[in-house]
Amino acid sequence: RVKAYPAREVQGNIWIYFGDEAENGAAELPEPPQLPNVEARHCHLFEAMPFPCDIDHAVVGLMDPAHGPYVHRSWWWRTRRSMHEKSKAFAPSPLGFTMVRHRPSRNSFAYKLLGGTPETEISFRLPGVRIEHIRAGRHTVCGLTAVTPLREGETEVNHALYWTMPWLTPLTPLFRPFARTFLGQDRTVVEAQQVGLAWEPELMLINDADTQ
User: Fold this and answer.
1) How confident is the model at residue 92 (pLDDT cuts 50, 70, 90)?
2) Cβ of 127: how many Cβ atoms within 10 Å?
3) Which of 5, 87, 119, 133 is deepest in the core (most CB within 10 A)?
């Protein structure tokens, strides 16, 4: 008598589909996200962190392409002095939109570790998946961030990191604190948001719905 839902393992991640189609026994369901250029390998680094918010508010933060320089300020990523005006191009993609491939900011120290001239593309897929694909010469770094609702007012943010550079793998223990710091910065903003959201304000879009 317990409900059963379709589940698939893809590239080391387990995806569970619990939409209405699954309950109605639909023959075809949406395919789980596939990360480009990482083949069938499992992730090298995985971190999960609970966020004290409903999934909708976690998704809004996840899909905000402009929050990086404000939220993720660190000596090893970007500093306040390195901020500058820039523009990015967007295109529609399945179940969301994509920040099309571009050269990332030179003011990001972490990108310098990859060498060469890295290019990155970031895809956002509803209901709550973000895929960042960084290409540096013949090598690839790919990050998958997915949000999972736990209960009302609590959401888990999962982050998996893949790469094709063998020399990065021994450094994995060193990367873990940075990954947790990165997620923690997002969580700090979410915690601050809850103060205002407790008053149930009317949430409005700035400009039109299709304006980034």
Assistant:
1) very high
2) 13
3) 133
